[in-house]
Amino acid sequence: MFSGITSKRSATLVAVAALAATVGLTGCSVDASKVKPDTKVFQYKGKTLKLTTHEVATKVVAGDRKDIKVTRWFDSAAGTEHLKWELKGDTLDIDAGCSGIAVCDAKFQVDVPKDLTVIKDGKKADLKGKS
Questions:
Q1: If you write DSSP's letter for every residue of 4-46 in order, what string do you get?
Q2: What pLDDT is recorded for position 3?
Q3: Mean pLDDT calculated for residue range 104-126
């Protein structure tokens, strides 16, 4: 009879502890748009680029360039960071985030030549011109 009550109390304590940890981290707000961005340039001669974003906010911009320029804004206050931007063959793989009890924010901009076809996460990208 008491084991059921003990299990419920343990589950409640775990839930309260998780909630307290989450509430405690809400004061650690992060905003990637407020940090200095990092950039990386890739030489690319192909006609079609496959872009994998891992669901990170990514804007693709077409312009007068012959290479691919990736700009990353990333900010974190907690968690284990995982950052990636690499070009292998015709695939540009970008990712930024964190895991664990995590507080982070990320976004990318990928500047490409205007005659390049970009397949972003399996769908043809709607390329924006430079503003």
A1: HHHHHHHHHHHHHHHHHHHHHHTTS---GGGSPPEEEEEE---
A2: 52
A3: 95
pTM reported for the whole predicted model: 0.74
Cβ pair 106, 128 in contact under 8 A? no
How far apart CA 82 and CA 54 sit, in angstroms, is 12
**Secondary structure letter of residue 130 according to DSSP:** P
- The pLDDT of 31-46, averaged and rounded, is 91
H/E stretch holding 96 reads strand 91-113
C-alpha separations of 64 from 37, 41, 68, 117, 128 in Å: 21, 14, 11, 14, 12
CA-to-CA distance for 126 and 100, rounded, in angstroms? 34
Buried b (16+ CB within 10 A) or exposed e, 21-60: eeeeeeeeebebeeeeeeeeeeebeeeebbbbbeebebeb
Burial class of residue 11, CB neighbours in 10 A (0-12, 13-18, 19+): exposed
- Apex CA 15: angle with CA 9 and CA 17, to 5°? 100
